[in-house]
Amino acid sequence: MSGMIEVYGSVWIECSHSVLVWWLCLCEKTLPLFSVSRIVLVESIPEGLEFNSSTTHPSIFQAWMNLMNEARSSVDIASFYWTLTNKDTHTREPTANQGEAVLNRLAELSGNLSVRIAVNTPQEKQPRHDLRLLNDSGAHIRTVNMKELTTGVLHTKFWVVDKQHIYIGSANMDWRSLTQVKELGVVVYNCSCLAADLSKIFEAYWFLGESKSIPSPWPERFSTMYNKDTPLQLPLNNTPSNVYLSSSPPSLCAAGRTPDLQSILSVMEDAESFVYIAVMNYLPTMEFSHPKRYWADIDTQLRRVAYEKRIKVRLLISCWNSTQPVMFSFLKSLASVYNPKNNLDIQVRLFVVPATPKQKEIPFARVNHNKYMVTDKIAYIGTSNWSGDYFVNTAGSALVVNQTASQSVESTVQSQLKAVFERDWNSGYSTPLTQHSNLKDFCYF
Ligand SMILES: *[C@@H]1O[C@H](CO)[C@@H](O)[C@H](O)[C@H]1NC(C)=O
Ligand SMILES: *[C@@H]1O[C@H](CO)[C@@H](O)[C@H](O)[C@H]1NC(C)=O
Ligand SMILES: *[C@@H]1O[C@H](CO)[C@@H](O)[C@H](O)[C@H]1NC(C)=O
Ligand SMILES: *[C@@H]1O[C@H](CO)[C@@H](O)[C@H](O)[C@H]1NC(C)=O
Ligand SMILES: *[C@@H]1O[C@H](CO)[C@@H](O)[C@H](O)[C@H]1NC(C)=O
Ligand SMILES: *[C@@H]1O[C@H](CO)[C@@H](O)[C@H](O)[C@H]1NC(C)=O
Ligand SMILES: *[C@@H]1O[C@H](CO)[C@@H](O)[C@H](O)[C@H]1NC(C)=O
């Protein structure tokens, strides 16, 4: 790493395209030994959930409010759908207050600076109050008809503020994602190179909002230099880091962009001791395809690294009212590979967010919606469920952070994410999935 520090100290390079330094991107226009880019894990912990653990992170609500307070010129948001108020969900829940505050603040900003929203084309019966309010306040909104374009949906959830700060994670633009659903995301402040790269993905959605077809190939301005083979090298929290953004489906990846599935498979491949995965849904199928199709790319990779490389694999999957029973058949199959005598170590646990009678009345809430993976080297924070559809036709994206080479005293994002996983895995909200588990007992409450 000494070569890297030398370059930091001697010259300022901003997102340089020069062949010599293209792999090195100093984010800030200042010239400190280390730049000031700051990365922060953020979480929504549903009302009433309590962990016996000191592992806590700022809330996603705080992160979004901070980002709006920082905003001076632009806010770009990629989103699946918008239901930030009680009005949208026909509820009268005090815990909708955070979502409502976000919507009001964003409406206020829409009059003063450039607010652009790319959203999946709403279905007939989906509420449109939020988008109408934002439009009336001056925001620019484009609907992306992913159904027509790829037979999928725009499922991505990220923010780019002032081409400087970014947020990416599992939370939808939904009040429940702030107080009633368990979510995980990440914010990177003061990082123009990463923000510029995420902007390219946003610009692709923005373009598709007015296009009847997907360009092939994508014009040059959408392409990137940063991917799994040539990541962006920069200091995050004073720690040398390799980072890149992946995107799905492959048809939305311009030249240079690593498709999300390739990113997941390569992170698993690169692991040397463990792969911990926390996702809401895990299915080796195309969930939404007709006729039904088997899709085992990720499943096969997990079994392979467990068998060939003796990697310890842990899957923390969500279980709630709407979980398809077939998911458990496939998870039991994966868990059946467990055999300590042969060094085969795959374990599955189900995470249940409990609900009081009153909380049960909130539709589509009380679930662990996390979508991340952490290995002994890498933190991967995404927006996709883990079934075939999300990698074949649905738009999603992920931030991959590699701080392997770090000698830093500050804790790395990888170690923070591992602590989140271990907190959840070891909590009373998780139950091991065994061949005998009767899911009715704890999932379908
Ligand atoms: C602009 O910002 C100010 C102060 O934050 C706010 O009061 C106002 O509603 C915003 N919108 C417009 C259109 O001025
Ligand atoms: C958005 O606002 C403009 C006026 O600024 C109006 O003409 C248009 O109909 C609005 N669109 C929607 C979808 O409400
Ligand atoms: C960005 O960096 C500047 C300069 O170091 C600092 O003043 C500011 O607080 C940082 N912004 C955020 C959101 O961390
Ligand atoms: C689960 O679904 C049933 C029937 O749709 C509903 O009555 C119940 O409140 C739901 N429970 C939760 C926790 O969402
Ligand atoms: C993930 O999958 C569930 C179940 O199919 C679906 O309800 C949800 O919309 C998907 N993901 C989101 C919203 O992130
Ligand atoms: C992580 O970074 C290290 C050190 O730079 C590198 O050797 C390794 O290949 C990287 N891993 C991945 C998955 O990018
Ligand atoms: C916290 O600890 C108490 C006492 O050991 C236990 O009953 C409870 O289930 C724990 N809660 C979680 C979320 O792990």
From TrEMBL:
Its EC number is 3.1.16.1. Keywords: Exonuclease, Hydrolase, Nuclease, Repeat. GO terms for cellular component: early endosome membrane; late endosome membrane; lysosomal lumen. Residues 150-177, 364-390 form the PLD phosphodiesterase domain. It catalyses: Exonucleolytic cleavage in the 5'- to 3'-direction to yield nucleoside 3'-phosphates. One of its GO terms (molecular function) is exonuclease activity. The keyword Magnesium does not apply. It is found in: Early endosome membrane; Late endosome membrane; Lysosome lumen. It is a single-pass type II membrane protein. The keyword Transmembrane helix does not apply. SMART domains: PLDc. Belongs to the phospholipase D family. This is 5'-3' exonuclease PLD3. It comes from Astatotilapia calliptera. The lineage of its organism: Eukaryota, Metazoa, Chordata, Craniata, Vertebrata.
